[in-house]
UniProtKB/TrEMBL annotation:
Organism classification: Eukaryota, Metazoa, Chordata, Craniata, Vertebrata
Entry keyword Glycoprotein: no
PANTHER family attached to this UniProt entry: NEBULIN
Keyword Metal-binding (UniProt): no
Gene Ontology biological process: cardiac muscle thin filament assembly
Pfam families associated with the record: Nebulin
Keyword line: Actin-binding, Repeat
One of the record's GO molecular function terms: actin filament binding
Name the record gives this protein: NEBU protein
Amino acid sequence: YTEAWDADKKSIHVMPDTPDILLAKANAANVSHKLYVKAWEEAKKKGYDMRADAIPIKTAKASRDIASDYKYKETHEKEKGHYIGCPSAKEDPKLAWAARAMALQNDRLYKKAYNDSKTQIHIPVDAMSVQAAKECQTLVSDIDYRQYLHQWTCLPDQNDVIHARQAYDLQSDNVYKSDLEWLRGIGWLTEGSVDVVKAKKAQELLNDRLYRTRPEQLKFTSITDSPDVVLAKTNAMQLSDV
């Protein structure tokens, strides 16, 4: 009587379309890394198609030809030696124009007449312009304008001297940083710094354990009074050896 039940207990068969199996398959697909990167891997296998007549390729070739020194000087190299028919360089219009432009741009030739006429000017010593220049030079002279501090005699208890010392102390870097001398040599822990907090936040954002919920963490409660559970209990009581 119990031989069939004993044989059936050893062979367990679960229908593939039960809710538990479907839920397990869905959770396995969610946590599968292979399925997660499947689209990316397939896109990488396809590669890319870059034809020779593509617009970026043509643009790069045109830019290379424009920037090429050889292409830039190609016309000049072809025209070398083609200037035939002028008996001398002075009769060549282009060479004559270049020589004229060089002469106009030459600073020595531009100032030659001025340098020759500088030694031919005679100015009286008591001329008005000379006297005015001397007075202007005296006014703008740095020697007469500047009075050095050691030439002055000041009492140490004068108000302006005391005020100047206070201003120097306020502007002094040593006095400005004197309240931070007690921090010199003190160790500092990086815990709580901006970089450490930023790294922790980035780690939390990239943490796969916090990003996905594991299937074993999902709460599942079986219904005890469902028809299949009641039928199983009844069959078990009927087939029980006891």
